[in-house]
Design goal:
Layout: E1 4-10, H1 24-41, E2 45-58, E3 62-76, H2 120-124
Antiparallel strand pairs: 1-3, 2-3
Length: 143
């Protein structure tokens, strides 16, 4: 079974001047031919042209529907070797834009004015085995 990858590009919006192109339709055909040949050089096969709607901003708060002329191309993907793992799904956003970050390193705290008197690290994080559990709470008396 053959798998394909696709590429979609906007169709040319205006024609190109050429020696033999006299009419606007001829000039547009020259521009379209240039795009098709450019993609074919990279192995892309022309599939079809589509006109698709896109909702876009109009003014400060408005929205309007705009239609885009698109050219669809495809090319065969390289066959996957037997036993190779399938492609892993990719995130919706680049890794650099990921909301998860590595934790920031904790800066070293400055020494106290008299470091010989109190070991601040031992006071800040006492040994859990030496800690006395809190006294149990008594239920409030009803009366």
């Amino acid at each position: 079974m053959s798998q394909f990858e696709y590429s979609v590009i906007p169709a040319p919006s205006r024609g190109e001047k050429a020696k033999d192109a006299k009419t606007p339709g001829d000039r547009y055909a020259v521009a379209l031919t240039a795009e098709l040949n450019r993609m074919a050089k990279d192995g892309w096969e022309y599939v079809r042209a589509d006109v698709l709607p896109s909702e876009e901003r109009s003014g400060l708060t408005g929205r309007s529907t705009v239609y885009h002329n698109l050219l669809v191309f495809r090319r065969a993907m390289a066959p996957v070797a037997a036993g190779a793992m399938a492609r892993q799904p990719q995130p919706e956003y680049p890794a650099a834009a990921s909301p998860m970050r590595a934790p920031e390193p904790v800066p070293d705290l400055p020494q106290a004015a008299s470091p010989g008197l109190v070991d601040h690290a031992a006071v800040a994080a006492p040994d859990r085995n030496d800690a006395t559990p809190p006294a149990p709470r008594n239920a409030p008396s009803q009366g």
